[in-house]
Specification:
mainly beta, six-stranded antiparallel sheet, 33 strands, 5% helix, elongated, disordered N terminus, TAT_signal
Length: 564
């Protein structure tokens, strides 16, 4: 007897982080020699009021050394390696959370903190990195399973023996597909799932690995149908396979799975698909740009602890392997401050310039048409997609399934059908804290006549539909992507992170499942917290960061309404 591989979860997050970090390092260090470690001399050679002494450690104590440069900048040049090193502060929290706009620091987790916003209206933010951020990479549409075709069943690495003689999946027997030939340690996939040749009513569930969740991906009500649905599913692991998808059905049917996009930490994890070229591992380096002539006389010193106005100051080092860098160290707070200026607009930033604007860190770039600036994505200005274990949020057919309802529970009949012209408000407590949106699946069952439902998160009822049906007794599913909003009850209680559903024309039972969240940082996807190594108990810094991110992400004015 042979044993199929068993699920392996213990080291998946760590292995994925290591892989993504290795990929990012390979990209950023291609063609350059960068030292593995940079040492600093231990003896202070300058104190407040003294001159900065190059090649040694200079200690200004609690004093702040300021370079007032106007439109000029401090240019740090090191032809053999990194020109600037920000030293992580062991006590960066909570002082850095109250730092002035323009502050840049590296926290104890190795992530870059940026204090964005306008002075007096600061917003804590962290730059996205491949350590924890996600990115969606579209790929050429690729069929990864067609159970009718033996050649397209080759991706099945577990459960193939449970298929019937024609290739149909059989009830209660999961099959596992490996996508390792398409992606290395992927987070999730986007695509389409189709059922055809079914023998009776049933449903299909797709998920990563482990125990089957109590959700459905596509539903059908009779034999002989052909139905498709959008698929967003977390990828899991099985034995030595690192990117797998599990599929199980409740009634015999053929299944087709098509892939259109992959969610990864870094694009280099995506393998060439459909004969296309693999993603570029690194952009071509821009030609070096020489600094402008110094406004101050050569040799004029920088004085520690005082304000200095030298025009353009250039620090040049040609030490082997980048061994000499400028390290900014402050163990009790911020390590670098970029002064915010409303006078600086996008076109003002020269190539290589770093600045902090209203929405976060800006990086000066250059093109053939002139200067531009690129905004760095951070927790203050962007959201990312985070896959979560498939989770049932609403099932109006049972009391337990209605536990998240804030409104609409009184307009459900004895068969669990929501009456026509009813607003449902579903609260995502214990799933997300101050999220921006969700991905998942909506299903309607036991319809009374033709009708439709709208799913949304903010503002008035949209003139759009999320799922439609045309007669009584139907069972249909559709993928859903929606914003999340806030909701205030008649009694004055306020709830963030809600989604609204409005039924029109027909009564129907309603089921809503979540498979992904749009958040500003993965820590806001609290449903993942039990397996997250970045929010482990006992870390005051991690808790402070998570709290700051969630508070900055709250948008209390985005209320759900059902006007008209």
């Amino acid at each position: 007897m042979t044993h199929e591989p068993q699920p392996d979860h213990d080291h998946v997050p760590e292995r994925r982080r290591l892989l993504r970090r290795a990929a990012a390092v390979a990209v950023t260090t291609a063609g350059a020699g960068v030292a593995a470690a940079v040492g600093l001399p231990g003896t202070a050679r300058a104190a407040p009021g003294d001159h900065l002494t190059m090649g040694t450690t200079n200690d200004a104590g609690p004093a702040t050394t300021t370079l007032s440069l106007g439109y000029a900048g401090l240019t740090l040049r090191n032809t053999a390696g990194a020109p600037l090193r920000l030293v992580p502060g062991e006590q960066v929290y909570p002082q850095v959370l109250d730092s002035p706009t323009g502050t840049v620091a590296v926290d104890p987790l190795g992530d870059v903190f940026v204090q964005a916003g306008r002075p007096g209206d600061e917003v804590n933010s962290w730059l996205w990195t491949s350590e924890w951020a996600t990115t969606s990479v579209p790929v050429r549409p690729t069929r990864v399973l067609d159970s009718r075709d033996p050649d397209l069943r080759r991706t099945i690495v577990a459960g193939a023996s449970t298929l019937d003689p024609t290739g149909r999946l059989t009830p209660g027997n999961p099959i596992v597909l490996s996508l390792d030939h398409l992606v290395r340690d992927g987070y999730a996939l986007k695509g389409n799932v189709t059922v055809v040749g079914m023998t009776g009513p049933g449903f299909l569930t797709a998920w990563g690995s482990g125990t089957r969740p109590t959700v459905s991906t596509v539903n059908w009500s009779a034999a002989g149908q052909i139905l498709s649905n959008f698929l967003f599913a977390e990828l899991g692991t099985l034995g030595g396979y690192r990117s797998v998808l599990t599929v199980q059905v409740s009634a015999p049917t053929h299944v087709i799975v098509d892939l259109t996009s992959l969610l990864v930490g870094h694009p280099s994890q995506v393998v060439a698909v459909g004969g296309g070229a693999a993603p570029a591992s690194a952009a071509e380096a821009a030609p070096p740009v020489e600094p402008a002539p110094a406004a101050a006389a050569p040799g004029e010193p920088v004085v520690l602890g005082q304000r200095n106005s030298p025009g353009v100051t250039t620090v040049t080092s040609a030490a082997p392997d980048g061994a000499a860098t400028l390290a900014l160290r402050n163990p009790n707070g911020a390590t670098l401050e970029l002064t915010h200026s409303d006078l600086h607009v996008a076109s003002d930033l020269a190539v290589g310039t770093l600045g902090v604007g209203v929405y976060g860190l800006e990086v000066g770039n250059g093109t053939s048409v002139g200067r531009i600036s690129d905004a760095a994505f951070s927790t203050s200005n962007a959201t990312m997609l985070v896959p979560v274990p498939p989770t049932r949020l609403l099932d109006t057919r049972s009391a337990a399934g209605r536990a998240r309802l804030l409104e609409g529970g009184g307009r459900i009949d004895g068969r669990g059908r929501v009456l026509a012209e009813t607003l449902l408000i579903v609260h995502l407590r214990d799933i997300v804290e101050y999220g921006d949106g969700m991905l998942g699946n909506i299903t309607v069952a036991d319809t009374t006549q033709g009708g439709f439902a709208t799913v949304w998160g903010t503002g008035s009822l949209p003139t759009a539909s999320t799922i439609n049906w045309w007669t009584a007794g139907q069972l249909l599913s559709n993928g859903v992507i929606t914003q999340l909003g806030g909701y205030e009850t008649v009694g004055g209680d306020y709830y963030p992170d809600v989604v609204a559903i409005y039924l029109q024309k027909s009564a129907a039972a309603v089921i809503l499942d979540a498979t992904g969240l749009l958040v500003r940082h993965p820590d806001s996807a609290v449903v993942n917290a039990p397996t997250s190594t970045r929010t482990a108990a006992g870390s005051a810094g991690r808790r402070a960061r998570a709290r700051a991110i969630r508070q900055a992400a709250e948008r209390g004015h985005r209320a759900v309404r059902a006007d008209g």
